[in-house]
Design brief:
The complex is a heterodimer of chains A (about 110) and B (about 110). In chain A, strands 2, 5, 6, 10, 11 and 12 form a six-stranded mixed β-sheet that branches. A four-stranded antiparallel β-sheet of chain A has the order 3-9-8-7, with no helix packed on it. A two-stranded antiparallel ribbon of chain A has the order 1-4. In chain A, strand 10 (about 85-95) and strand 11 (about 100-105) form a beta hairpin. By secondary structure, chain A is an all-beta fold. Helices cover about 0% and strands about 50% of the residues of chain A. Chain B has about 110 residues and is an all-beta fold. Helix content of chain B is about 0%, strand content about 50%. Chain B has no helices and eleven strands. In chain B, strands 2, 4, 5, 6, 9, 10 and 11 form a seven-stranded mixed β-sheet that branches. In chain B, strand 9 and strand 10 form a beta hairpin. Chain B is globular, with a radius of gyration of 13 Å. The chains are: A mainly beta (about 110), B mainly beta (about 110). The interface between A and B is medium-sized, with 24 and 24 residues.
């Protein structure tokens, strides 16, 4: 079945450091891929998405590229801020009749000033 | 535009007691989802509604969980009786097309 694997955290970085959170997926067909962010005490917010191979999703300085050949959707940001501290979830959707989201286990990012 | 509204935000109950969660989706969103998020895990789908019809409830533990979406707008998720293992965050999401928008969740603690 479909699944998502993302790197375990916590990831601790200093402000302005480069961020990479790895995400790989297993799916039949051509899923859509997402990154969601969950700030402390809040619900999940859609951060970015990509719906087909080689698409790049971007938002708030974050980027991720849909790599079909490596089945990956790694999240990157060139310069993190303290306010980026949150839990990041990679997810896929089969885009079919169910539109069901399947999430990874989440990666906690802690950015220190 | 108002987001997905959920209540209560927190609930503490003793095991074997009933509990209910309420969700009001974004206006116009015909698809509504209930997810359960265990500590340290990603959310997992419990049930999906298209308007008032439950079209995917394969992950809903039907012996103790029930849900309804009367009139195809608000939805209620119920657990009766609750067990210790039901402690989790229950998230509601809604969508018009593909993108799902999540509410803040209800954090349930069963003692």
């Amino acid at each position: 079945g479909n699944s998502v694997t993302q790197m375990e955290g916590p990831v601790t970085l200093s402000e302005e450091a480069f961020l990479t959170i790895n995400c790989t997926y297993t799916a039949t067909g051509y899923p859509s891929l997402f990154w969601y962010v969950q700030y402390p005490g809040e619900g999940l917010q859609l951060l970015l998405k990509a719906t087909k191979a080689d698409d790049k999703g971007s938002n708030k300085g974050f980027e991720a590229t849909y790599r079909k050949e490596t089945t990956s959707f790694h999240l990157e940001k060139g310069s993190v801020q303290v306010s980026d501290s949150a839990v990041y979830f990679c997810a896929l959707s089969d885009r079919g009749a169910t539109n069901k989201l399947i999430f990874g286990t989440g990666t906690l990012l802690a950015v220190q000033p | 535009e108002a987001g997905v509204v959920q209540s209560p935000r927190y609930k503490i109950i003793e095991k074997k007691q009933p509990v209910a969660f309420w969700c009001n989706p974004i206006s116009g969103h015909n698809t509504l989802y209930w997810y359960r998020q265990n500590l340290g895990q990603g959310p997992e789908l419990l049930i999906r509604y298209e308007n008032e019809e439950a079209v995917d409830d394969s992950q809903l533990p039907k012996d103790r969980f029930s849900a309804e979406r009367l009139k195809g707008v608000d939805s209620t998720l119920k657990i009766q009786p609750a067990e210790l293992g039901d402690s989790a965050v229950y998230l509601c999401a809604s969508s018009l097309e593909a993108d799902q928008y999540f509410g803040p969740g209800t954090r349930l603690l069963v003692l």
